[in-house]
Design brief:
Blueprint (H helix, E strand, L loop, with lengths): L12 H8 L3 H7 L8 H14 L5 H8 L4 E6 L5 H16 L3 E6 L6 H9 L5 E4 L6 H9 L4 E4 L9 E5 L1 H14 L5 E5 L5 H16 L4 E5 L5 H13 L6 E4 L2 H15 L8 E6 L12 E4 L2 H17 L7 E4 L2 E3 L9
Parallel strand pairs: 1-2, 1-3, 3-4, 4-5, 5-11, 6-7, 6-8, 8-9, 9-10
Antiparallel strand pairs: 10-12
Helix pairs in contact: 1-2, 1-3, 5-12, 8-9, 10-11
Amino acid sequence: MSDPSGTRKTVNSFDVAKLAGVSRSAVSRTFTDGASVSRETREKVIAAAGQLGYRVNVLARSLHKQKSDLVGVVAADLDNPFRAEQIDLLSKGLLERGLRPILLRGEPSADVADLIGSLLQYSVAGVIVTSDTPPEEICMECLENGVPLVVVNKRDTGAPVDRVVTAFEDGGRLAFEHLVASGCRKLAVVTPESSSYSINGRALAFEQAANNNGIPVVRIAWGSQSYEGGLEAAAFVNRIRSEIDGVFCTADYLALGVLDGLRHGHGVAIPEDIQVIGYDDIPQAAWKAYDLTTLAQSRKVLCEATLELLMQRLENPDLPQQVRVCSVSLKKRGTTRAVS
C-alpha cells in the first residue's frame, strides 16, 4: 500500500480490521491455525488483507510464543546435482509438514558454528546440517535451547544429536568387488584433495577391500569435489594409464569430469581401456553421454529419514540419540564391462 508520494506504507492488522469492518481480534483469529472464526468474518478479513497487501508477521508471532515454524538448513556445494536435489527434497518435505525452511550456505569460508548460532537467534524449531560437521559446543547449545539438530552424512559430533548416514563402507566395498568382477586388477581411487567424512570413508572402504584381497590401489587426491576437479584428475590418470585399468571416483560429479577428460582430452576408450565407477547416482549419471556405473544412495530415502528424525525429536525431545543408516546399491551401466 502506498501514499500519494509513492512511499510504501506499512499495513497492520488495524488497517485490515477497519476495512473489513471487524475487530482486530477477529483478524488475529483468522490468521491463527485452529482459532475459532466464522466463515463470513474470515472471508471479509482475507479479502481486506488481499486488497491492502497485508502479510502476517510470522517471525514476530513466533518470538512472542518463543517458538517458530522455521527450520534452518545449512548446506554447501549447491552446484553439485546431488546436493541441489537433496535440499529441494528437504525443503518440500518441511513445507508438507507445516514447517518453513530457511537456507544458509555453509561454504568453505563460513563457520558452521556461526551459521547455526545465527539461526538460534530466530527461535528456529530445528536445524538440519548437510555441510561441515558442527563442533560439539554448538550442538550442545542447540540441545540446551531445546532445538533439535539432525546432521546428514557427518561423523559423530560428540554430542547426542541425531544422525543420518549412508552405508558408505558398503559402497566402497561394492565398487571394488564390481571392478574386480569386471576384470580389473590395477586400481585407482579418485577423491578431492579435501575430503568430507563420507567421501573419505568411501575411499578408505575401497582401499581396505583391495588391501584385503592383495590388490594395489593408487589414491589420486586432486582438486575439488567438482566436474572441474574430475577433469584435472583425468590428466593424471592418463599419465599413469599403463598402471591402471579400473578407477573408482568417490562422487559422480568427479566421475563426469574424469570421463570427459579421458575420452575427449586424451582419446581413452571407456570401458575398453579403463573402466570407471562413480558414487551417488545423480541424474546426469544415467544420461546416454555418460551411462555411468555408480553406487546409488537414494536422496528420497535420505531426506525422509532426516525429516522423520526431526519430527520425532520435536514431538519427544527426551528420546535417546538416533542414528539412521541408509543402504546403497550398485547401478550397472556402460562405463564398466558386463560381468559374465
